[in-house]
Amino acid sequence: MNAHGQAPAVIEAHGIGKSYRTPGRLRLLPRRRAPAARPARRAMEDVSFRIASGESVALLGLNGAGKSTLIKTICGILRPDEGSLSVVGLDPWAKRRSMAGRIGVMFGQRTQLWWDLTAYDSYRVLGEMYGIPGVTLTRRLALLDERLEIAAFWGKPVRHMSLGQRVRCDLAAALLHDPDLLLLDEPTIGMDVPTRDRVRDVLAERGKEPGKSLVLTTHDMSDVAHLCGRLLLMEEGRLVFDDTVTEFLGSMRYRQRVKVSFAASGRPDLSPSFAVLASGDGEAVIGVGDGQEAPDVVARLLARGDVLSLTVEEVTIDDVLRFRSAGPAVALGAAPC
Questions:
Q1: Which end of the chain is more exposed for a tag (fewer CB within 10 A), N or C?
Q2: pLDDT for 292-329, tens place per residue?
Q3: How far apart are CA 70 and CA 109, in angstroms?
């Protein structure tokens, strides 16, 4: 704790921003004429937050909201154009080598394992890179196998693994050097239910260790609910929500959705009887909430007599973000659900 009774910060950002130059239309210009300056696109603007040591935080947002830019900035891959950023007490851009041993990263579909090597050989290489003594490396691998059950396939080349197997091996690689800060993108993608629950248990146990912090990006709301106490939400490059996961879940108007197809073509007329979140040619997505139950909504839809098919699904994070303001229904073709 510091003098103000706070845990030390593992990440501290003050007004950071990032712009990209977008390519303009290709033109053949005379050599003597300089090309026109390309317009800048703001990917992140005036983002400020503090994550204390030991906190587990979810970072959410639709595609293009700025999540990847922020994560890459935290890792030191990108340098912010303005503002200040400290990660584990270091400038992530200027001190990338020093910071590498303090953070663990898993970027969803992008493996840090060597594609043609076995996962076990990759762990040995990573052990050398991080300066992990042989005895310590053996002990940590045994512990990771006990928790993630990866020894059964860590002897095969990474290219021959299933997605779920590779994601588990990637998670083990991120944990191998016992980092203070873990940055995870979709850590349970491609996993069956028992394996997903095992991975959640491993991450939850790690979150109880003193000084071990987690930043999680995911499209699975149950991952957020199981692992994180706080949620950061980004929209169009700005941080628009910073509060507890409980507060965020309490603001959700719809917990389920009904996807329905009708016999007639054209946009179905469902208002005001149903909460239409999206509609298109002969189909619609209807929200279930505000005291309603899914069986009641389904029964009223079937009573119309023109329903071809329907399914009831849990609302995803993308649904929550897309419809959280409960604005007018969007076209299904323009904003798929």
A1: N
A2: 889 999 999 999 889 999 999 887 777 777 665 445 45
A3: 18
